[in-house]
Design brief:
alpha/beta, single chain, 7 helices, 7-stranded mixed sheet
Length: 196
């Protein structure tokens, strides 16, 4: 199975409090995402990249088989966090057969969805497999070993979405309509809880 990098470095400026620590179904979004990643990875490495809220997030990861990588350059943007996660992976192991990137504020991501990304890579031979929702390709997204160098070249301020647009010929997709549900504002969080 591919390794998983869970990005949890942001400061949640639009929300005004750490979104990683919002509760959903009795767990914080971070704990839920980390447990989902561990289940999907089936023994492969899981790296959680922290930044703004590093110390506040550590208790939520206690006891889980994850590597926590603090990204000092988190303010630069998602690219910086992705590269920090890659560096942490390489420190612990030779590069895996692929890497799946995920965020902690998409509460409907399941282990089965993450595994489907890797399975779609095998079935289609495409180097990148992204989730399709709201007429875009986005995270979670799988990068095969051959596509990982593209992540290394990302500018610090850019996210993986830029690569999906620029290298669309490499991308297969898995439908995930619920991927559009994320938590950037209090209104979105209220809507999420209302849908529980």
């Amino acid at each position: 199975m591919p390794a998983i990098i869970l990005l949890a470095a942001g400061a949640s400026t639009r929300l005004g409090r750490p979104k990683q620590l919002l509760r959903y179904h009795g767990q914080t979004l971070l704990r839920r995402a980390a447990e989902t990643a561990i289940a999907a990875a089936a023994g492969a490495a899981v790296v959680v990249v922290t930044g703004a809220q590093h110390h506040a997030l550590l208790p939520e990861l206690a006891g889980l088989p994850v590597t926590v990588a603090h990204c000092p350059a988190w303010k630069q943007g998602m690219g910086a966090s992705i590269k920090c996660g890659l560096a942490a992976l390489e420190k612990h192991q030779a590069l895996p057969e692929g890497i799946t990137l995920m965020l902690c504020d998409q509460p409907h991501v399941t282990p089965a969805l993450l595994q489907q990304l890797a399975a779609t890579h095998v079935a289609t031979g495409r180097a990148i497999v992204a989730c399709a929702y709201a007429s875009v390709h986005g995270v979670p997204v799988f990068f095969s070993a051959s596509a990982v160098p593209l992540l290394r070249q990302l500018p610090d301020e850019a996210g993986a979405g830029q690569l999906l647009k620029r290298h669309s010929e490499l991308v297969a997709s898995v439908p995930f309509p619920q991927g559009a549900i994320d938590v950037d504002t209090e209104a979105q969080y209220a809507a999420l809880l209302a849908g529980e």
